[in-house]
Amino acid sequence: MFGSGKVMIGLAGCGYWGRNLARNLYQMGHLAAVVDPSAKALKEVKKSYKGVRTGSDFDSLLEDGKIKAVALAVPAAQHYALAKKALKAGKDVFVEKPLALKVPEAEELVLLARRTKRILMVGHILEYHPAILKLKEFVDQGELGELHYVYSNRVNLGKVRQEENILWSFAPHDISVILLLMGQLPEWASTSGQHYLQHEIADVTMTCLAFPGRPRAHIFVSWLHPFKEQKLVVIGSRKMAVFDDVIKDGKLKIFDKGIEWKDGQPVIRQTAESTLFFPEMEPLREELAHFVDCVRTRKAPRTDGANGLRVLRVLDACQRSIDSGGQPVRI
């Protein structure tokens, strides 16, 4: 059943992001069917992907014995219900971030996947980016020294969402990477946000995460910004690193610089700067290939349900902090 051949996957949702999943799964030879409420989206699928079944009924994916797994690229509010239904039907599940909107729902999905022995993987795409994997390697090897702080900016003009605020739309990417680098959950989160475009839907949020000991992380996200920036800065006691996901080449830079004390005075140490280049590849393709491999081999995904649950715990604390006017919330 889990050889090296095709793993037939049914895709739910073929909108803005789902189209990218459809393209990759089809090119990889694993796309069996697509369901979506939009007739226009299904027409595009039929035109682009010969032999792929289309429809509007999610249950049709679950009733098809040839389909071994489903991928969910639906609105976040539907993640929990559809993932639960698919797991109960005996399907392996790939679900885009966030795993669910409520911590108890995510806990239920993790337990259900464990009980039914199904693969549950969450689409935290940056954890499959070669530059992030290399950065994690540097951190684990002590190349940067002791981590002091991380800050991440993810800003753009649009894409404005009406069903979720900027925190839930953008910040899961940054939270997942920061947790990966820190290797632990923060002790508390404090987030302030403000809404300018829509009532009660924050367009801009600033988050502070406090980790055990002294490390801190800051996350600034906005869809009301004059330019696009996706930048992660990591400050260590020995070296510093910058991951810039907007530039095409040389996305990861390592700076051998810092502050040293000489004769009781702070002195800037500034030596080498190195830029790392990576082969041209699409992180989404790497992510989906990992999912397919996990379906075949039954090994736990790197971003499994437990990983998605950790990110959700932080998101939940951030949202509660926003609701309390920016007060720190323990995690």
Key features of this structure:
9 helices; Dihydrodipicolinate Reductase, domain 2; 34% helix; alpha/beta; six-stranded parallel sheet; 2 domains; Rossmann fold; 15 strands; 30% strand; globular
State the gist of this model:
The protein is an alpha/beta fold.
Q: Which radius of gyration do the C-alpha atoms yield?
A: 21 Å
Strand proportion, as a percent range, falls in 25-35%
Count of helical regions: 9
Here the CATH topology of the largest domain equals Dihydrodipicolinate Reductase, domain 2
Shape, per Cα inertia axes: globular
The run of helices and strands is EHEHEHEHEHEHEHEEEEEEEHHE
Q: Termini, distance in Å?
A: 41 Å
The first-level CATH class of the largest domain is given as: Alpha Beta
Spatial strand order of the main sheet: 14-13-12-11-7-10-9-8-15
Number of strands: 15
Structural class: alpha/beta
CATH superfamily of the largest domain: Dihydrodipicolinate Reductase, domain 2
**Stretches with pLDDT under 50, minimum 5 residues:** none
Tell me the number of structural domains: 2
- Helical content stands at 25-40%
What's the architecture of the largest domain, going by CATH?
Answer: 2-Layer Sandwich
